Structure prediction request, 308 residues.
Amino acid sequence: MTDVVAAKSGTQWTIEADGHRATVAEVGGVLRGYAVGPVEVVDGFGPDEISPASAGQLLAPWPNRIRDGRYTFEGTTHQLPLTEPGKHNAIHGLTNWSRWRLAERTPESVTLEFDLPAQVGYPWSLTLRTRWSVGADGLRSDQEVTNTGDANAPWGFSVHPYLRLPGVAVDDTLLRVPGRSKVLTDNRLLPIGAVKVAGGEFDYTEPRRIGAAALDTTWGDLIADSDGGSSVTIAAPDGSRSVTVWGDGSFKWWQVFTGDTLSGERFRRSCAIEPMTCPPDAFRSGRDLVVLAPGQGWRGSWGIRVAG
Prediction:
């Protein structure tokens, strides 16, 4: 159980149990690294680096993109800053670069909190609370949010860990995604429709080699696991090693990104596997958007399991 202060990403909290070790950083409350024994499972970043390509970030109060950063909620139109200016979108929420505070800790867990103030574009206040823990079953994250304002607030959530199997190229990785439909997008990666994937190039309901596929893709219509949630798995070609990202029933969508637009050594080095409560542009479409009444809370859990 260690604390390290770094100039760019703030205090680092490392938690350990049963050979599992994770590091969470103060800036953004991000998952900066996760290892099982000597094997780095999460493709993270250094303590004095700025999180590259949203690595390990929590995406709240919306995941993915909002077209033109403009949406109407309960009769009022709001304009968010365009944080993806090249595509004229607002992307990945409002909590990424804020400092989260320590609420609780044990050797195997750490809980961080953040108060999101009402602001232009999102005039509602929220309190977010994330508990990270590790143990024999892997890494687990329990997310809570409470609307601390006096009006209904729109809410969506996701996370952005990059996962890898050391020694296995993205091309050679076997991918399983439980989605029976795929969101169609325009050149700004914004939704314009959806199609069934059965038998097609985006059908990963059975494990399949990624090959040359360049994925930055959203799947829905999920096949549920026995616990009511769902999961995405990457595996070595012979199936001897695998990493599974799971989400409870709160997460109705999955995004997988193979890193093709990243530069340098991060190009196609790992896969971002993102459980999402709602699809891209949900503040505009309302699709699976959570509406929090004043004082109302929401909870969701996700995690990572490693085999082999």
About this structure: The chain has one domain: 2-307. The longest strand covers residues 297-307. The two ends are 26 Å apart (CA to CA). DSSP finds one helix and 28 strands in the chain.
